[in-house]
Amino acid sequence: MLEFTNRVILITGASGGLGSAVTKAFLDAGATVAGVFRSGAPSVIHELFLPIHADLTAPAEAASAVDRARSQAGRLDALIHLVGGFAGGQTVAATDDATWQRMLDMNLNSAFYAMRAALPALLAAGRGRIVAVGSKTAIEPVATLSAYGVSKAGLVALVRTLALELKGTGITANAVLPSVIDTPANRAADPGADFSKWVAPESIAKLILWLASDAAADVNGAIIPIYGVG
Question: Quick one: which H or E segment has residue 178?
């Protein structure tokens, strides 16, 4: 089993369907988890879980979330960025400005703000991990999903660029690209789908856990598909 005792992991989007599974995986491995969520109450109650409210689409709130995690836990060892959103069903010609901007804010800008805020702490420590969750659509575009696909493609470019900039620092940056994740929200949105072909959140959590571990020190700039059996 991978060991994360005395490690502090900042997880954004910690209260979602995927976030809950990833948070549990790190807590089970002994990590202290600073879980960032936008609203409501945290779905996790654990002595090593530190809940932080923040809207990561705002630069100042992203910086504040990282500062609070460091001040409460005393250090920062990894950023796991799970924040994201989905909108689609319109052609490029029919996509409105609000949808386009919302997808960029949720899927790309939030990642940039969180990563930029976390980097000083990781660089000062001389080691660390950054893992982002993208989407299959980032590398395989789908008609009527322009805003979503472009925002996720931008996230891939961000991670790859960051990986190049972090060479030799002891910090790695990688991304995982799921297809449809088997969460309650996705089941409700597509009740007629074959859920057995979707990706289990626990499978993604295991991959992220490994990427954040010492065992993955030589993996940097990887864009890893995890598409399930569908």
Answer: strand 171-178
Residue 62: CATH number of its domain: 3.40.50.720
Angle at 121 between CA 116 and CA 122, to 5 degrees: 85
Query: Is residue 32 one of the residues assigned to a domain?
Result: yes
Specify if 65 maps to a domain: yes
Q: Residue 14: which domain range?
A: 8-226
Does 3 fall in a domain? no
Q: Strands of 78-81's sheet, edge to edge? A: 49-53, 32-37, 8-12, 78-81, 128-133, 171-178, 223-226
pLDDT digits 0-9 by tens, 84-116: 999 999 999 999 999 999 999 999 999 999 999
Question: Does the residue 204 lie in any domain?
Answer: yes
Residues 6+ apart with CB under 8 A from 45: none
Assess contact for 84 and 109: CB atoms under 8 A: no
Helix (H, G, I), strand (E, B) or coil at 204: helix
Report the domain count for the chain.
1
* pTM score of the predicted model: 0.95
Tokens of 26: 């790190």
